[in-house]
Fold:
Amino acid sequence: MSSEGLSYAAAGVDIEAYERALERVKPLIAATQGKEVVSGVGPFAGLYALPGGGHLAASADGVGTKIKVAIAAGSHRGIGIDIVNHCINDIATARARPLFFLDYFATGRLDPDIFAQLVEGMTAACRASGCALLGGETAEMPGVYALGDYDLAGFIVGLVEPGAHRKAIRPGDALVGLPSSGLHTNGYSLARKVFEDVPLSHVFRELGRPLGEVLLESHTSYLDELGRIPWKGAAHITGGGILGNLARCLPDGLGARLERGSWRVPPIFELIRKRGRVADDEMDGTFNMGLGMILVVDREELPDGAKVVGEVVSQTGPDRVVIR
Structure:
């Protein structure tokens, strides 16, 4: 391994390049949207106004290169759970109840056993959230995907009931962290680079169980928690980590300050940091670091046992999210 620290961009994923590309095409996307589109590109879910009140919330996503870990381990059911829960969390940040889900599965050659495992995972996650698996597309694409490789993407639609609203977010509001189960579905290109010479069966002392089991922990669904906690804003911590996602739920002029050490960071992240010599800012801008969802909550409405990890502040500098 190089003496220089690893980064997500060096592992093949350049988030800044993606953001530049997105800014370039935003005008094209906006030109397709009429007055019914309440929120389009930017939030975790797009909102489409329904006649008579209420909104449809929609989101699409993928599982990323976690699939490569699943292929190496020969374990695929969890990938089906991952894609559904990832999409459910995205629309839950808009206070949406999931209605239906569709999947897109592409592979070089269809393996019925792998496909069955993925569908088992997707249906289990859909049942747990009261969401219908409405259908999807299965594509065999030899020459595009190597034999044994596949990709899985998901699309979800939910309903925001008429009258659903949020209180205004203000400086001093608490940031409540909901714990993740691990990497969830993001940062795997960097994690795989860090562990590229390590068998998935290897047991690190820090982890206490095989590396493959830790890396394949399923993406947590926060649907129930978001239904119980009186939150003002919610950030699903996915690609871009804490630094790239928390600001997405804050209005202009406000930022966030988090206290490092106020929440438990799972050992897998510290192991990645040490083995890859990854800088703290790179870790915070790539991984969820143990916080799969961060909620903005009025301090007078904090539920018992809430894990407060920081607060909303007036933005006075270029960095909207600071972890100190």
In short: The CA atoms of residues 98 and 130 lie 7 Å apart. The chain has a mean pLDDT of 93. The two ends are 29 Å apart (CA to CA). The first helix runs from residue 15 to 30.
